[in-house]
Amino acid sequence: MVKATVVGAGIAGLAVAVRLHRAGWAVQVLEQEAEVRTSGTAVVLHRATVRELRSLSLGPGIDALALPLTGLRLRTRTGLPLSPPSWPASGSVLIERADLIGLLRDSLPSTALVLGHPLAARDLSAACGEAAVVVGADGVHSALRQQLFGPAYRAASTGTTVWRGTAEVSTSGLTESWGRRRRFGISSRPGGGTNWYATATLPSAGLAPAPSDLEELRRLFGHWGGAVAATVARISEGSILRHEIHHLARRLPRYHQGNVALIGDAAHAMTPDLGRGANEAILDAMSLVQHLEAHDDVGSALAAYDRSRRRVTQRIASGSLAVHTLIHGSPPHRQDRRPRAMTWDDEKDPPVPTYLEGSSLKRVHEGRVGEEHDDDAGSPEVDGRTS
């Protein structure tokens, strides 16, 4: 039986491990944490991703645990529409991150997962032993990525903070409200209630620090219109997750080296603005194993995987950064470039940009923004322009 080692037990790592296991490989998943992390809120899975998960016999679990996503609505901070009334989600579903990870983990033999491993990535040869292929799925701050390609490919901060959590408020579908360098998203939650997320680019000076995350959320969003203020009023301090948004600012020249392949955030860490991160990680996993099955040698398989996935995922990452820049302005590491955030007036709602009208919204959501500005694969991330 051919051996494979997967570094990282997040969504990407577990998905590729399940696919390898179904293909008859002997799989070992190395995770440095003492347990598989399930923190986070709901994940949007798009139609193509759901189809791939069904091919792994996970359909019944998804049907039982996920909630159909009925549409996407964009609004201003006062509640006025920024997009058509509802853009159909075309077979997309919402599923709790913990439930998705549970489905994947339960599809593996209990012996496949090695927790508390003294990580793997710091000594690739020792970690991977006699594995025919090594899959780097160790996330945004991938040690494998840096080991293979050097420190120039560290993830960079966008300078934007994100908060996530749940609240006992009724809602339907997915709504995002946009304001001046701020955004608040609300979605239905499988089992009832609401998942919410908020992003903000905070000034480095001139604003007194809030005593808590909850106070900061109330200060930033408590006066917004629509369902935002009502949701903020129902948030409890203990339910808030907070972190800074990072992305891979410099494109990798390839997603493989030797017998090592990178997938998910390790390959193309992107901002969360298009909701594509988990989807592309799963599609990476499926594509990688399909090419391993189709080729006689690992090198050819990894090269084919790179050809099929690198260009499309880097374009999606570019589109996601374009939307991020539209709302929040240029990240700190791009301050030599002209900021392209929309101009907001604190007293007025912004005009609806052409960028968001009609079929343009669909193009944004599919990650096809910026295709016309595609650079050579090895160059830094293409400019996040919106016109």
From TrEMBL:
<feature type="domain" description="FAD-binding">
    <location>
        <begin position="131"/>
        <end position="317"/>
    </location>
</feature>
<dbReference type="GO" id="GO:0071949">
    <property type="term" value="F:FAD binding"/>
</dbReference>
<dbReference type="GO" id="GO:0004497">
    <property type="term" value="F:monooxygenase activity"/>
</dbReference>
<protein>
    <submittedName>
        <fullName>2-polyprenyl-6-methoxyphenol hydroxylase</fullName>
    </submittedName>
</protein>
<keyword id="KW-0560">Oxidoreductase</keyword>
<dbReference type="InterPro" id="IPR036188">
    <property type="entry name" value="FAD/NAD-bd_sf"/>
</dbReference>
<feature type="domain" description="FAD-binding">
    <location>
        <begin position="2"/>
        <end position="79"/>
    </location>
</feature>
<dbReference type="InterPro" id="IPR050493">
    <property type="entry name" value="FAD-dep_Monooxygenase_BioMet"/>
</dbReference>
<keyword id="KW-0503">Monooxygenase</keyword>
<dbReference type="InterPro" id="IPR002938">
    <property type="entry name" value="FAD-bd"/>
</dbReference>
<dbReference type="Pfam" id="PF01494">
    <property type="entry name" value="FAD_binding_3"/>
</dbReference>
<feature type="region of interest" description="Disordered">
    <location>
        <begin position="323"/>
        <end position="387"/>
    </location>
</feature>
